[in-house]
Specification:
Pfam families: HD_5. InterPro entries: HD/PDEase_dom, HD_GYP_dom, HDIG_dom. The protein is of the alpha+beta class and 371 residues long. The protein has 12 helices and 10 strands.
Length: 371
Amino acid sequence: MILASTKSLKPGQCLGKPVYTEKGFVLVSEGVPITKHMINRLLELGITYVYVEDERTKDIKAPKPISDELRKQAKEMIESSFKNIQNKDTLSQTFVLEKTSKDLMKLVRSIVKEIKANKELITLLSDVITYDNYIFSHSLNVTLYTLAIGKKLNLSEKDLEVLGLGAILHDVGKMSIPTKILMKPGKLTNEEFDIVKAHTDSGFEILRNVMTIPLIASHCAYQHHERLDGSGYPRGIKGEDIHYFAKIIAVADVFDAVTSNRVYRNAMLPHEGLEILYSGVGKLFESGIIEAFRRAVVIYPLGLTVILNDGRKGVVSKQNPELSERPVVRIIEESGQVLRETYEVDLNKDLHLIISECDTTFAVDQNGEKS
């Protein structure tokens, strides 16, 4: 399969992976020829990229960081926990979270176990989902990225569990923000942005009163928008005053925000998200955390069409552990001609080759013709 921009889809093409609603229902099935109406609907729903069937890359399948069963369980538990504290006073919120905190920690332990057992680089791009409420999926995505970073940083299992719980609950304060502001498609006013920023204070106030939740998790909610140079919020603290776990979550939070479909912005590709993170190294984010992230997360996803510095065009077919920027590429076009017989180059071995560009408008049909 090939990763393609939704805007480049043509009627008659078949999706290589289904598109799901956040509830897990199939919106568009794989293998079914899509229509113009389906394409327009995907665009309306903010789906930026999809996987398209392609004969020459049909063996390329993106692995999942955790099992479908655990992902479903995690989404349901996060949504239930968050919704149960919505529109309640602080005392009621504390009571609800004290009841659910043990289940949340049990969930985190299950995620930690699967993340540690998974030898693959982590990618979430393979799950094409239209979001009814971004907060719940974002909380899970940030947890997966956060734990992948923590794993590369060789954190202890106990630290990973506390870090994971802090990641799951980092945006719990957003349940106090009116939906019309949170899901606003246009630019926020200054007053609206102030309301959004207050979610860090709200989250801290909710969590710090829950005796069954480690205080560090409360600080993750409080500090995940703080930055090394003091340009963050809510307090504008700097450097070592920011808890290390909050610094990790900050990286995961930004990456998922820019690489996910949002009501007000199209999703970036992972390598574009990484460029944003690198632009803030030493100023906004700690370099060691960014490097751990780079080693843990897929930068060029399987199925992505890339152009090499020698002009050859191919599709990412395999990942090299610890070297996500140097994957194996299946060459499908050379000197402007679509190849009848493909072959692979390993960028970790051919060090003179680099990926110079990504192309999500290119696809090859089963006859080897450009489409």
